[in-house]
Predict the 3D structure of the following.
Amino acid sequence: MAEKEYNFDIKQLGECKVKSPIELSTVVGDCSANYVRDTSFVVRQVNVFDASKPFTTDNTNLLQKAGPREYIYFDPKKVKAGICTCGGLCPGLNDVIRAVVRCLWNRYGVRDIVGFRFGYRGLFQDTMEEPLKLTPDIVDEIHKIGGSFIGTSRGGGERIRDAVDTIEKLGINQLYVIGGDGTQHGALTIAREVERRGLKCAVVGIPKTVDNDFLLIDRSFGFETAVQQAKEAIASMHMEARSQNNCVAVVKLMGRESGFIAAAAALASHETNFCLIPEVPFDMEGPNGFLANLERRLKEHHHAVVVVAEGAGQELLETSGTTDASGNKRLADIGIFLRDSIKAYMGAKGIPVDLKYCDPSYQVRSAITIASDSVYCERLGNNAVHGAMAGKTEMVVGLVHDKFVYIPTEMAIASRNFVDPEGALWRDALDATGQPILMVNDIDAAKEKMKKMIQNS
């Protein structure tokens, strides 16, 4: 597969001349926490696929480490920061908001912080509600509830001039944008319009997608909470299935284009017998199709648990061809399709089946973070602030090889991340479910389809 072209240089608003109010050490080995230098990097490509090729140590392979700098660009007394959350709900939104506010206020002494209400709509004069003043006292407890404290909405990322008009009018010079792929596309365009107008405003993204499909970063915040919630839903459905004869439990999970939640939840539960994800095609009918395999499972074990990602099997259904407010294609309902197809197939064969169906998506999205995600969100928010205070812009903060780094937004949204059908995660998920590697009748056609997906990812 051809290597993508990357450039990991981070855009800087100007020279950092202000001494940071955070007192850290510049000496390594003195048992004190240290500042991070702009010359500190994390190597992106650590897997060696061809030892004969040279190892690159330039801006195509080095990611700038995140963290507090000794000298910063902004005078904290002159900072006016804005925060917005966009897109669907995801565990951890409030944790990130809280972290950003507390780091700005407690570590840097910033006293002017606002939350724009209900996503990008909060930046448009015709739809905006009064921005919410944010202080540590206001946000200290919000990590204990789900959802978004300042509200969210889909769409609006195309109204760039309106958004920047508000930024200019209110004197915002740091904008923290928490959202997914489409949201970060909007943030990048906002940053470029800000630059075109000659404004000095750092636009920093904190990537949010419960599907975990952001390119380059180890994982998105909220993902581990989503997997935990999904695991609990699977456990409940498994109990239903095994307590009755010939019971099939179908659980539909999030995963529009990438099946990370479904694969991880199947692996975590070890109670899933079939896991269907967008990256791996399957047939419904035929001797090697899903329904025939399900029939064989019922004959042997008298129950089955099926986990399906929402974007799986879309080629088997009729779609509207339309998009939602975020620009995502509207998916046909694979969960209902599976439910009805299983009933029809087993009914035609005279096989009695008790079918249970569950879609816990909104319960998962609105959940309070588990400990690991809460820690991750806190550190993401802190490192986003450190980057913005140092005048870095057009970037997102993320975890790469367990190190926090700054990634140019353009690189982070270049494409999506996918479950590799030949990779370790999917291999281990197959071991956990016991399902066939491919449930198709034309192996060559299925392999060709997956090859194209891998090459384009």
In short: The chain has a mean pLDDT of 93. The chain has 13 helices and 17 strands. The two ends are 9 Å apart (CA to CA). The CA atoms of residues 130 and 150 lie 11 Å apart.
